[in-house]
């Protein structure tokens, strides 16, 4: 039916079961196969619509062992497509190639619908970014911009969800008492992380420790706290409390008052020195001096009155991150400057994005069961990480900090593409 739609097609099988591009199927080998007439690529009334949108009754598609390099995003718009076989094609998108060899059709179509790293709908925005960067470079040096395109394509991707787009934005209220103790705090929500594959959670915790040692200068300029968002009871209050009143359930410990926790840590540090016969100590013990001379200690308190963070010492067991954690509440505090908090948060988001890409591409161990979990799991894992803005306000509700603002994440712009 040349020139017209083919709505009656329900099964389409154009696979090459015997194998290779060098041996095309001849008519005698496939007597049961009739030629398939494909509708025009660009019908006049819909110049941008894919011909696949005409296959409204298509339920099964088999294009195995062909020479396909990409899968069109329009496949995701075939409303009745339930079974598809794309195996044996050398796809450019290696993540997609893994998926077609081990995932359900539904997961593959969700990946195409999200854009993936093939030619899906989400690719349009990224192509625009790449195009602008190429044009800018061409004006600068007269080159063809090919290197810029490669670099832009390799960038990690995050999307910012603005307060105005969020039906239930998280707010942190700051007490004026923190000014003389630990004045600065920056927070945000990060959704879509994957900590399940292999040792992803261990690598996440190790990354946080390294940031504390490096950019946070052993927690002397800033401290990071990461929480499972589902366990955070909002609204939150950043406040100070006397050492004998502040109670927390530290990670891996029972509930204890802050003054008793510090005393306990000091005793552990002394014992550590005796056993190792050296002055240096490890773990939380090396941060105890940061609270010397403080009459009150900083803390982040949830809506139930529980302390979920005691910077620069520890987080609470109540909001502890686990392998199943998907969404994070991130917090950076400092007694030095607000900009340091923002710079640390920029770097933290970048590092989490790097770890997340590693998990999704399954660098933990090729061919493992975890690979299927990473690639065939919830559809949102194939989307960019989403950073939700969090407002920090004073007791009267006046805005003190909004992160990320338009100028934030600039310090990692060379490695991260931010969709605002």
TrEMBL record:
Q: What is this protein called?
A: Leucine rich repeat containing 47
Cleavable signal peptide: none
- SMART domains (UniProt xref): B3_4 (SM00873)
Please list the GO biological process terms of this entry: phenylalanyl-tRNA aminoacylation
Coiled coil in keyword set: yes
Which gene is transcribed and translated to give this protein? Answer: LRRC47
**Region entry Disordered: which residue ranges?**
117-149
Q: Which residues form a coiled coil?
A: 255-282
MF-aspect GO terms: phenylalanine-tRNA ligase activity; RNA binding
The record ties this protein, via SUPFAM superfamilies, to: RNI-like
Q: Compositional bias of type Basic and acidic residues: which residue ranges? A: 120-130
Kindly give the InterPro entries that the UniProt entry links to this protein. Answer: B3/B4_tRNA-bd (IPR005146), LRR_dom_sf (IPR032675), Phe-tRNA-ligase_IIc_bsu (IPR045060), Phe-tRNA_synthase-like_B3/B4 (IPR020825)
Q: Where is the B3/B4 tRNA-binding domain?
A: 181-357
Q: Which UniProt keywords apply?
A: Coiled coil
The answer to whether the entry has keyword Coiled coil is yes
């Amino acid at each position: 039916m040349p020139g017209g739609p083919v709505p009656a097609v329900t099964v389409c099988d154009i696979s090459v079961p015997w194998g290779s591009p060098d041996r095309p199927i001849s008519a005698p080998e496939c007597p049961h196969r009739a030629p398939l007439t494909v509708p025009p690529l660009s019908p006049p009334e819909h110049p941008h619509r894919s011909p696949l949108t005409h296959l409204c009754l298509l339920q099964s598609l088999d294009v195995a062992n062909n020479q396909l390099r990409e899968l069109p995003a329009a496949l995701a718009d075939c409303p009745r497509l339930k079974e598809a076989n794309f195996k044996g094609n050398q796809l450019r998108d290696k993540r997609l190639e893994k998926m077609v060899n081990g995932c359900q059709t539904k997961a593959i179509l969700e990946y195409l619908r999200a854009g993936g790293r093939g030619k899906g709908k989400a690719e349009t925005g990224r192509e625009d970014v790449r195009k602008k960067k190429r044009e800018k470079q061409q004006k600068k040096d007269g080159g063809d911009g090919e290197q810029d395109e490669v670099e832009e394509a390799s960038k990690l991707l995050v999307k910012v969800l603005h307060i105005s787009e969020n039906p239930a934005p998280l707010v942190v209220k700051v007490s004026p008492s923190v000014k003389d103790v630990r004045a600065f705090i920056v927070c945000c929500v990060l959704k879509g992380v994957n900590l399940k594959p292999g040792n992803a959670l261990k690598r996440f915790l190790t990354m946080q420790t390294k940031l504390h040692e490096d950019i946070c200068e052993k927690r002397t300029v800033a401290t990071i706290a990461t929480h499972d968002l589902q366990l955070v009871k909002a609204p939150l209050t950043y406040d100070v409390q006397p050492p004998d009143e502040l109670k927390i359930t530290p990670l891996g410990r029972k509930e204890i008052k802050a003054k008793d926790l510090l005393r306990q840590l000091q005793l552990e540090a002394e014992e550590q020195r005796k056993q190792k016969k050296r002055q240096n100590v490890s773990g939380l013990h090396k941060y105890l001096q940061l609270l010397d001379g403080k009459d009150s200690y900083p803390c982040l308190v949830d809506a139930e009155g529980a302390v979920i963070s005691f910077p620069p010492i520890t987080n609470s067991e109540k909001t502890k991150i686990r392998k199943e954690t998907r969404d994070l509440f991130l917090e950076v505090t400092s007694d030095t400057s607000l900009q340091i908090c923002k710079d640390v948060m920029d770097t933290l988001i970048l590092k989490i994005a790097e770890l997340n890409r590693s998990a999704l591409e399954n660098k933990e161990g090729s061919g493992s069961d975890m690979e299927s979990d990473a690639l065939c799991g919830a559809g949102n894992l194939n989307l960019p990480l989403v950073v939700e803005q969090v407002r920090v306000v004073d007791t009267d509700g006046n805005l003190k900090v909004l992160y990320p603002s338009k100028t934030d994440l600039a310090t990692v712009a060379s490695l991260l593409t931010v969709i605002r």
